Please model this.
Amino acid sequence: MSDCDKAQTNAIKAVYLESQLLLCWWHVLRAIRTHFNTKEFPGQWSLIQDWVRTTDDKEFEVCWKYIEEDTSVPKSLAQYIAQDWLPYKEMWSTTSRQNHTIFEKGNTNMLLEAYVTPIFTFISN
Model:
């Protein structure tokens, strides 16, 4: 599991050719939230948080369509997600994390982040 550091992911892919690299949801959401004001668009922020963790492919696509077409949110947000995150969907979307063991379902790559995430969510709201 990684935070999407390009050098790190390239090195892992080069050394471990058959590995499945997953991205930490906390880091994915932190990166996305830096591209718009979550306090100004709380509905969109809530949708994005749910979208990352949805397990259903159809629901994922419906949510993405809404994010992409929502005219009340800066278009740059959808462009950023489309360019920087959708090409790597299999690395972070829960739709790609089905039928894993409990150890593979972890939403973080460090125990410390497991404790920081609730605080982060509280602070961001």
Summary: Helices lie at 6-15, 25-33, 42-53, 57-69, 75-84, 89-92, 111-124. Residues 6-124 form one domain. Confidence is low (pLDDT under 50) at residues 114-125. The radius of gyration is 15 Å.
